[in-house]
Design goal:
By secondary structure, this protein is of the alpha/beta class. Among the domains are: about 120 residues, no CATH class; about 240 residues, 3-Layer(aba) Sandwich (Rossmann fold), CATH 3.40.50.1820. The chain is about 50% helix and about 15% strand. The chain has 16 helices and 15 strands. Helix 1 runs parallel beside helix 3 and helix 3 crosses helix 12.
Length: about 525
């Protein structure tokens, strides 16, 4: 071949390589466009899904509000109504402003990072540089959103097989029941551990609105509050609420009914083990346990109390109490959250109460914030090679499906505790059997009390949980993290702050260790 032929051949090969590169680049750009279109569709599908529950609760609130106001408007001074409506509008605008600001913040943080990655990937594709191309990046983004919007919700539903109580699996014994509750004995998950029949028993009282299953979080993974006691051989019992939707006796339950049922269960357990009972309440269950003890109905049956992240004086809450104080007095009323059941009985709407908690922490709980938080979490999982974190799935199941309606009388007790402070002499803002409930009855009856709280609990803050210490002495244990950590992270016996250990500079006793020490002290008498 002549030099001229070689030049033509070189030119042909160069043009062919350029054309192949151009076609390859266009193919990648077209693939990227297709994947980006899929990602956009998934994104908006996700936004709508995350907003669904929030908006559904909003419309429930609007219906209740309209129903109550339809009757009240005609009997209220028009000027007063205008003032109240103006105040509630300002509060709504403030909440909306916080929601927008928090959403903008998380969106900006996320998309600025992603834009930088996308621009680098585009340059790599257009100029055939080393590194990830725009088609690969777009495909990863679409797969991530597919995981967030479709796969993650399916995994959350599927975790129910491992999450919470399964009373038909042989790990529980039905011990007693009333028209409102069932008492189960919790057996050790390790069948080699034997329950000490002469041991000091504990009855665990779950929260009402947050459900019971969170106290048996993931038993197979050794994350279960109730099994932390049972696996130490402690006679452990859990009080389970009947289904409020189908149980009129529970729908109409009063604080007195609660105390009477608790007394019956304590009598049953004390007779079985010949030892006084430790009453152990989690969250709202701790407040109702305290009220039952102070009523005098449990005298001679209960000699110790353990409360975990329990609101004792809600007026000291920086979150929920402040939110309620900002409401015009007219709207700070249980009537705006009352559901009428088909049989005519009225109950407090648990779904709406959960929504109120979201409103008071709107900067963290607004749907867009939650959506982006899950995107970032699952994006990090992809980097680490992890699939889905079981604990995260279980927490999300709890958040999505564990909201229970409440008896109005029980709700009123909690409502009063968040609006009326404990008096200077230690009297609670509620009565049972017409009796005052005074904290000083605890030392008078020789009842030992352990108060546990979470350092970073933004639902039941330290001040709310420790309010009784202004009036009487009690032992205090401080756990790291927030409201659920005692029932989740620290219920694992291998964790640093396991419930059967002592920890921290002050050698705090976990609730299981506290119970074991009470048991040993009782045997030494």
């Amino acid at each position: 071949m002549t030099d001229k032929d070689n030049q033509y051949l070189y030119l042909y090969e160069s043009l062919k390589a350029s054309l192949d590169g151009y076609l390859n680049m266009n193919e990648k750009l077209l693939n990227a466009a297709a994947e980006k279109t899929r990602a956009v569709q998934l994104y908006w599908d996700g936004v709508l899904k995350y907003f669904h529950d929030f908006v559904d609760s909003y419309w429930i609130a609007v219906n209740y509000f309209s129903s109550v106001e339809k009757d009240r408007l005609s009997t209220t001074d028009p000027i007063e109504s205008i003032r109240d409506y103006a105040d509630i509008l300002l509060l709504n605008l403030k909440i909306a402003e916080e929601a927008v600001k928090s959403s903008q913040g998380v969106m900006n943080d996320y998309h600025i990072r992603e834009f930088s990655k996308a621009f680098s990937a585009w340059l790599n594709t257009v100029f055939s540089l080393e590194g990830e191309g725009i088609d690969s990046l777009s495909s990863r983004q679409a797969l991530l959103l597919e995981k967030v919007v479709h796969e993650y919700p399916r995994a959350i539903k599927a975790i129910r097989d491992e999450y919470g109580f399964h009373f038909d699996d042989g790990g529980y014994i039905k011990t007693a029941e009333t028209d409102r509750f069932i008492l189960y004995q919790v057996l050790p998950t390790n069948r080699r551990i034997k329950v000490r029949e002469n041991g000091k028993p504990v009855i665990i009282i779950p929260p009402f609105v947050l459900g019971t299953n969170v106290l048996a979080f993931l038993p197979k993974d050794k994350k279960s509050y109730v099994h932390s006691f049972a696996n130490q051989g402690i006679p452990t019992y859990i009080r389970i609420m009947r289904d409020i939707a189908t149980t009129p006796a529970f729908q109409l339950m009063t604080g007195e009914d609660d105390a009477r049922d608790t007394r019956f269960f304590c009598e049953t357990v004390k007779d079985k083990h010949s030892r006084p009972v430790t009453l152990n309440g989690y969250c709202q269950g701790g407040f109702s346990s305290l009220c039952n003890i102070l009523s005098g109905e449990l005298d001679g049956l209960v000699d110790a109390l353990i409360t975990c992240v329990s609101p004792m004086d809600g007026t000291r809450s920086k979150g929920l109490a402040t939110f309620l104080k900002n409401l015009p007095p007219r709207f700070n009323d249980l009537a705006y959250g009352t559901k009428t059941l088909p049989n005519g009985n009225k109950v407090a709407d648990g779904k709406l109460m959960g929504w109120v908690y979201k409103l008071k922490a709107i900067q963290d709980e607004y749907p867009l914030v939650s959506f982006y938080r899950d995107i970032v979490m699952l994006q990090d999982n992809d980097k680490s090679g992890a699939r889905f974190n079981k604990s995260a799935l279980a927490v999300n199941y709890w958040l999505a499906y564990e909201r229970n309606d409440l008896p109005l009388a029980i709700t009123k007790m909690s409502f009063d505790s968040y609006n009326i402070p404990i008096t200077q002499d230690g009297t609670l803002p509620v009565r049972l059997f017409g009796r005052e409930l005074n904290l000083k009855r605890i030392p008078e009856k020789g009842i030992k009390w352990l108060i546990c709280y979470g350092e970073n609990d933004d639902l039941v803050e330290k001040e709310t949980a420790l309010a009784p210490l202004d009036y009487i002495d009690a032992e205090v244990t401080v756990f790291p993290k927030g409201h659920l950590a005692i029932a989740t992270s620290w219920s694992n016996p291998n964790s640093e702050f396991a419930l059967h250990k002592s920890f921290g500079e002050k050698n705090y006793r976990g609730p299981v260790l506290y119970q074991l020490d009470l048991d040993n002290a009782g045997k030494g008498k």
